[in-house]
Write a structure and sequence with these properties.
Blueprint: H1 3-17, E1 24-25, E2 32-34, E3 39-43, H2 50-59, E4 67-71, E5 75-79, H3 84-94, H4 102-105, H5 108-118, E6 123-126, E7 137-138, H6 144-153, H7 158-165, E8 174-176, E9 182-184, E10 189-190, H8 196-203, H9 223-227, E11 229-230, H10 236-246, H11 249-252
Parallel strand pairs: 3-4, 7-11
Antiparallel strand pairs: 1-2, 2-3, 4-5, 5-6, 8-9, 9-10
Helix pairs in contact: 2-3, 2-5, 7-10
Length: 253
């Protein structure tokens, strides 16, 4: 499990187990953020990047963080932030202009210094074996932000994908073909990222040809992720309501 996969797994785990959580994988100044609750987490597979999260908070000028955390594959350690000026002083001592990349900050000596400065964590969450990836990833209201981040990358309309997945169940019938398109092998249905009305309008014109879906082809590294997506019919109403809430205002119009 690489850092991205671990971040996704931690995001889903936190949203499923922590009350009123809204974590998202953001892959920006840190790996995971719950901006509503002003919480930020840096993830590494085999160590804790104390210096990196402090440097990120200073660089982004986040003065109102409620808590931040560092995580590896075994646990998450949360801390209440010291005063912002203390964080900034720590970061500017080795990077006066705050221009270092994250990899330049993730050094043993800086992590040791940051850990000593922070002291004991205020909360430690022990993680289960997240490497045991479930056979299917069920889309839920709580993990929707993580799912949407991936579908947005491929310009997939999440509403349409959820409708298409409804009824598939726990069967190994969703595959990505050689062209990068999603296919239900049971029904021989291609996901075109279009409404049924739009599909019907084109059927006559494209009779005998190959329909090209209205999204970017799925890349090799993301095939397993897409093939594992499922939705429970009983969750459909709540999920689609949440998708509608997350849609950009201009798209709703």
């Amino acid at each position: 499990m690489d850092e991205r996969e671990l971040s996704d797994a931690i995001t889903e785990y936190l949203n499923n187990t922590q009350v009123s959580s809204h974590y998202e994988f953001i892959d920006d100044f840190c790996d995971i953020a719950d901006t509503r609750n002003r919480t930020y987490i840096e993830v590494k597979t085999d160590h804790f990047a104390y210096a990196q999260i402090l440097h990120a908070i200073a660089k982004k000028n986040i003065r109102n963080a409620y808590k931040f955390g560092v995580a590896d594959h075994k646990e998450i350690r949360f801390f209440r932030p010291p005063p912002f000026q203390v964080i900034r002083k720590f970061a500017t001592e080795f990077d006066p202009e705050l221009i270092f990349t994250p990899s330049q900050v993730d050094k043993n000596d800086l992590n040791e210094k940051a850990e000593k400065m922070l002291g004991a964590p205020t909360q430690v969450i022990q993680l289960p074996d997240l490497s045991a990836t479930p056979k299917y990833r069920f889309i839920t209201k709580s993990n929707l932000n993580t799912i949407k981040a991936m579908t947005d990358k491929y310009r997939i309309d999440l509403n349409l994908l959820i409708d298409w997945l409804d009824g598939v169940g726990e069967h190994a019938s969703i595959k990505v073909n050689d062209d990068g398109w999603l296919v239900n092998t049971n029904t021989i249905s291609l996901f075109t990222n279009e409404t049924e009305e739009a599909q019907r309008d084109k059927e006559l014109l494209e009779f005998g040809g190959h329909r090209r879906p209205k999204h970017l082809p799925i890349r090799q590294k993301d095939i397993e992720w897409f093939e594992s997506l499922r939705v429970r019919h009983g969750d459909l109403g709540d999920i689609l309501h949440e998708v509608d809430r997350l849609m950009p205002r201009k798209k709703k119009a």
